[in-house]
Automatic annotation (TrEMBL):
Source taxon at top rank: Eukaryota
Places the protein is found: Secreted
Disordered: annotated segments: 193-255
UniProt biased composition (Basic and acidic residues): 214-234
Protein's name according to its UniProt entry: Inactive serine protease 35
Taxonomic placement: Eukaryota, Metazoa, Chordata, Craniata, Vertebrata
BP GO terms, sorted: proteolysis
Signal peptide: 1-24
UniProt-recorded Gene Ontology molecular function terms: serine-type endopeptidase activity
Principal subcellular localisation of the protein: secreted
């Protein structure tokens, strides 16, 4: 065979370079795109009535530890029967009645398996690491606008996030201590920051994710805040003229009663044993839907693969009463059920929705989604040998948890097959 003519070789070489560049570009783009997950189905088997709770528990200032990243590897595999027991749940209604619902899990073999975590000993609190990097969102220009407007306050002293027009995702320990429901849950309320009108009445926002003209500009302003941290860091610093003019009109919380509360059985003492921390989440259904934009749920297999591995969340920290507090940081470590990080936080922020921002598949549009629930400060057995490392911990949304929460929100598991 003779030599290949240069006029043929050059186009082939150029084509190879173009194909390689396109492949590299697609690989990079994949890192910034929400993955699509096949989600198992969580279906109701039967519901039975239970006696009314005592509502005698008290809020927990700090959870007692977690068997962490290496420690969990020594645990036996969880059977399907165990998973179905952990995902079965209790429902408490506003009139004080209570039911227990058992579930079945279908299609689990079609989903990548997500192992489990557990827990260890607690010590003194240290929710802030080094310089405090939290930002106070006190200006109504931001606090009543998405994504901050999706953050809510729970009357038991925690935070939460709207995941539907009338459903709030929060931490289970904000509702139940593992043995009984907290005092105050029988009259549970959720507070939404609303802008005050001149007549002193709250002014409603948009519902169901609808946008008004000018929202794109507001989104760009918020992105600058997230990336550059231009929000007032400790409630201090230079204030613009417009900032000074609106401070007297600081947004206030408008409270809405909770219709029912749902908590997974895996959170209860003596059920999931060392895996209790993995089930520290609950959903509250409101009696009336506030006209506020909510945030969708998302599933991500590893934040280490996401550029910067950065997470965000906003909550009502106790040390900044009446203000919404926003923070972001990179995840330090992760297991299949928990995210370990050093995002500065204080009591009151527990239950906040942890979110990231990626592109929608096949689109250039970026979208924020909730990928976890902030649980709080914990000491973690990192190597299975008793070595303790303290972290601020979040429970991540796995395909199974997505299926359960989606079922609670929609009441129909057939709407929850893809995350």
């Amino acid at each position: 065979m003779g030599p290949i003519p240069l006029c043929v070789l050059l186009p082939v070489t150029v084509l190879a370079v173009v194909v390689a560049a396109a492949a590299a570009e697609n690989a990079v783009d994949d890192d910034y795109t929400w993955p699509q997950w096949k989600v198992p189905l969580v279906r109701k088997r039967h519901t039975v009535p239970l006696s009314s709770p005592n509502f005698s528990a008290h809020p927990q200032p700090e959870l007692s530890g977690v068997c962490g990243i290496e420690c969990q590897r020594h645990l036996p595999s969880t059977s399907l029967d165990d998973l179905e027991q952990f995902l079965s749940y209790e429902t408490v209604y506003e009139n004080g009645t209570r039911t227990y619902t058992s579930v079945s899990v279908q299609g689990l073999n079609e989903v990548t398996e997500w192992p489990r975590n557990t827990s260890s000993s607690s010590r003194h609190k240290r929710e802030v690491y080094g310089p405090d990097t939290r930002f106070t969102i006190s200006d109504k220009q931001y606090s009543t606008k998405y994504p901050f407007s999706a953050s809510v306050k729970i009357s038991t002293g925690c935070s939460g996030v709207l995941v539907s027009p009338k459903h709030v995702l929060t931490a289970a320990h904000c509702i139940h201590d593992g043995k009984d429901y907290l005092d105050g849950v029988q009259k549970l309320r959720v507070g939404i920051l609303r802008e005050k009108s001149r007549r002193g009445k709250g002014r409603g926002g948009r519902g169901k994710g609808k946008r008004r003209k000018g929202d794109k500009d507001k989104e760009e302003v918020l992105e600058k805040e997230e990336n550059a941290g231009k929000v007032d860091r400790k409630g201090k610093g230079r204030k613009s003229r417009s900032r000074r003019n609106v401070e007297s009109e600081k947004p206030s919380l408008r409270w809405t009663r909770v219709k029912k509360t749902q908590v997974p059985k895996g959170w209860f003492k003596g059920v999931s044993d060392k895996m209790t921390a993995d089930y520290d989440y609950a959903v509250l259904e409101l009696k009336k839907a506030p006209k506020v934009r909510y945030m969708d749920l998302g599933v991500i297999s590893s934040l280490k693969k996401i550029p910067a591995g950065r997470i965000h969340f906003s909550g009502f920290d106790d040390d900044r009463t009446g203000n919404l507090v926003y923070r972001f940081c990179s995840v330090s470590n992760e297991s299949n059920d928990l995210l370990y990080q050093y995002c500065d936080a204080k009591p009151g922020s527990s239950g906040s929705g942890v979110y990231i921002r990626l592109k929608e598949p096949g689109q250039k549009k970026w979208k924020r989604k909730i990928i976890g629930v902030f649980s709080g400060h914990q000491w973690v057995d990192v190597n299975g040998e008793g070595t303790q490392q303290d972290y601020n911990v979040a429970v991540r949304i796995t395909p199974l948890k997505y299926a359960q929460i989606c079922y609670w929100v929609n009441g129909d598991s057939s709407e929850c097959q893809v995350a």
